[in-house]
Amino acid sequence: MNPSTSVAPADFTPHDQLLMRRALDLAVLGAHTARPNPMVGCVVADAAGRVVAEGWHEQYGGPHAEVNALNRVPAAVDLGQCRVYVTLEPCSHFGKTPPCADLLIARGVRDVVVCNHDPNPLVAGRGLQKLREAGIRVRTGLLEAEGRWLNRRFFTVQEQNRPYLILKWAESRDGFVAGPNAQPVPISGPAAKMLVHRWRTEEQAIMVGTRTALNDNPQLNVREWPGPNPVRLVIDRSLTLPATHHLFDGAQPTVVYTNKEQPDRDNLSFVTVPAQQPLLPAILDDLNERRIQSVLVEGGPALHTMLLEAGLWDEIRVLRSQHVRIGAGGVVAPPLSLTGLREHRVIGPDELFVFG
Question: Which helix (H) or strand (E) holds 24?
């Protein structure tokens, strides 16, 4: 269904907006556990606008937000007099759970407000159509931009058939990411490092190129923030990385993209991309098949530049030191001539710039 058919935000009251914002806040609670499904929140309010129940999609394969919310509605409450706020179009198909649209109809709900249409071809307006055909009042588009931003990873996969790509690097005040001969140089302060580890918990995978893996020997795990480790991705066309590097320690799932055949082993997969085949499309196709919805690309500049030149990015996060200088001979940060600055803030001795 075309989002242009959505009811304009002016048709909603400030109280409607307040309750949808609450539903969006609830959706975030499923950030680590609902994926690869989208984050969804649901609020049920009575005729006076008072919240009588809430829910969110808590676990992939488990009950959806609408189910959790409706199951918490007190028995004395008449759902026919309530309004249900849900951040994503209720599903209309049988998957791991029954259709939420059917449940809303069966429970006698008469008024539903939806933030975003679901672009999944299995839904794609069918849930809204089913509700309307049952005589339910349905309005859509409330806080639509906020909802798309919340589920930007899901929308990118559904609409572009590739994961959401976040390019991230730290650069010195004079624009370098490493010292001479690509030697690692401490750039970011403690607060910024903690933030980066939080970012790692929020994305399904983390990716580096050959040089960064060789020079930095990164662990690419989460050590300074609670949350799941991402899947590690590394490009190693000629299989030149030492087997003793952290990437091969088996501590977390790791995928190596190479031009050479290599057998898989515990927690380590090798994907052969023929030398004559374009590398980036092959990687993105493989990630799509693995249902990986987002990748934090941590380096290095060669990989970042390749993605930038191909237009394959959705967000760029640059941490710039206010004090560290590297000087001539260092590795220059990827060139940026972008508009669309979403965020700029100071984090200890560093500045964060987010584009996208």
Answer: helix 14-28
Q: What is the pLDDT of residue 6?
A: 42
Mean pLDDT, residues 302-306 taken together: 94
Tokens found for residue 298: 């941590």
Has residue 221 got a pLDDT over 70? yes
Fold match, 3-156 / 161-355: no
- Please state whether 125 falls in left (phi above 0), alpha (psi between -120 and 50) or beta: left
Output the known binding site for Zn(2+): 64, 91, 100
Q: Which helix (H) or strand (E) holds 306?
A: helix 301-310
What is the SS3 assignment for 316? strand
Domain ranges of the chain: 3-156, 161-355
Considering the four listed CATH numbers 1.20.1250.20, 3.40.140.10, 3.30.160.250, 2.60.120.260, the one that applies to the domain covering 3-156 is 3.40.140.10
Q: Binding site: what residues are annotated?
A: 64, 91, 100, 170, 200, 212, 216, 220, 223, 298
CB hemisphere CA count around 217 (13 angstroms): 7
Q: pLDDT digit string (tens) for 73-83?
A: 999 999 999 99
202 in Cβ contact with 229 (< 8 Å): no
Residues belonging to the binding site for substrate are 200, 220, 223, 298
Note the pTM of the prediction, 2 decimals.
Answer: 0.89
Which tokens is 1 given? 């269904």
List, for residues 310-349, the tens digit of each pLDDT value: 999 999 999 999 999 998 889 999 988 777 899 999 999 9
Superfamily of chain region 161-355: Dihydrofolate Reductase, subunit A (3.40.430.10)
pLDDT at 343: 94
* For the chain, percent of residues with pLDDT exceeding 70: 96
Residues taking part in catalysis: 66
From 28, 316, 17, 304, select the one nearest 149 (Cα to Cα). 28
